[in-house]
Design brief:
The chain is of the alpha+beta class. It has 2 domains: about 110 residues, Elongation Factor Tu (Ef-tu), domain 3; about 150 residues, no CATH class. The protein is built from 5 helices and 14 strands.
């Protein structure tokens, strides 16, 4: 059971992380938040993360969780939804796109067994893999006692987690050529994980073959990430989160409006045929306000706000680090 603010939604179930400083992690809080977003396919409002520091407020939600207060159209209810100067723009470039995600540097546990014949002097035996745990040790099919070095005492054999050797107790007699030592253990092995989106792979193949039908295409666009410290299940979960978030078409909308109410993290419905957008939904990633002096007649003037807004349809193109670096500017 957990109790938290409704602004913090449940994300992905993450089997394992490498965030602990006790394991040598040097990731910042911003990098950890960004990683949680990737694995959950969420977006996060960095403005609210900043306010968490000041007013104890943070959001962690799916894209559709916070709707914008109004719908964007070329004229809109106030005739100033979109200002023509500067002209609104749609950018279809997605530099973060991938339909195949690789994870490297992870660890998995695989059952192994090694047998050794004694020579009358050897008391240390190398299993060839870092040992995660030992399941059994036999000497000529007779069960032996074993445990962790520097933890257990009075046993036949000892091992250290993460090392590859099994050591005989100093009180034991080294095994001879007539004796066979068999060690069954769970080995720590380095692994690489890959997750693909078959639907997106097929879409890319169709696009490339429509350009040149004679040219073979795999349709695969790869990205890789170091996932050191994670086990197999955690690597697969993280790869899946990255493919789900970034393996989709992307549009970035930039426009200026004089209508207030928009904020970072809102989902803005857009109907703008001049931009080729019909019933679009854009996640707002930047809202920058500026002021200008406007005459109202009779020599009177007022200060009028203008809002420069950016939103994305598809993966979020700014991470926590870039969000936070802009807080002092916007």
């Amino acid at each position: 059971m957990s109790v938290h603010d409704p602004a913090i939604q449940n994300g992905a179930l993450i089997p394992q992380t490498n965030y602990s400083v006790l394991n040598g992690n040097r990731m910042t809080i911003a990098q950890i938040c960004d990683d949680l977003i990737k694995q959950s396919g969420f977006t996060a409002s960095a403005t609210n993360f900043w306010w968490k520091v000041i007013n104890n407020k943070m959001t962690f939600q799916q894209h559709q969780a916070t709707p914008a207060p109004w719908v964007l159209t070329p004229t809109g209810a106030t005739s100033v939804d979109i200002v023509d100067s500067p002209a609104p723009m749609i950018d279809n470039v997605n530099s973060t796109y991938r339909n195949s995600q690789w994870g490297t540097g992870g660890k998995d546990v695989v059952a192994q067994s090694r047998s050794f014949i004694g020579n009358g002097t050897q008391t240390t035996f190398d299993c060839g893999f870092p040992i995660d745990s030992v399941t059994s040790i036999t000497l000529n099919s007779t069960a032996q006692t074993f445990g962790l070095s520097n933890v257990s005492t009075g046993l036949n054999w000892y091992y250290t987690q993460g090392q590859s050797t099994v050591v005989q107790d100093t009180s034991g007699t080294p095994i001879n050529s007539a004796q066979t030592l068999t060690i069954a253990f769970n080995a720590q092995v380095s692994i690489t994980a890959n997750v693909q989106n078959p639907t997106e792979v097929a879409r890319i193949i169709a696009i490339e073959q429509s350009v040149d039908p004679t040219k073979p295409s795999t349709g695969i666009i790869d990205e890789g990430e170091d996932m050191s410290g994670l086990n197999k299940q955690a690597m697969i979960a993280k790869c899946s989160g990255l493919v789900n978030q970034f393996g989709q078409q992307n549009k970035t909308l930039t426009f200026t409006t004089m209508r207030s109410g928009l904020a970072v993290g809102q989902l803005l419905p857009v109907f703008a045929s001049p931009l080729g957008v019909f019933a679009g939904a854009f996640l707002l990633i930047q809202v920058k306000i500026s002021w200008r002096v406007v005459g109202t007649g009779g020599g009177a003037i007022v200060q009028s706000p203008r809002f420069e807004v950016s939103g994305v349809a598809g993966p979020q193109v700014l991470g926590w680090l870039r969000y936070l670096s802009r807080l002092g500017v916007n």
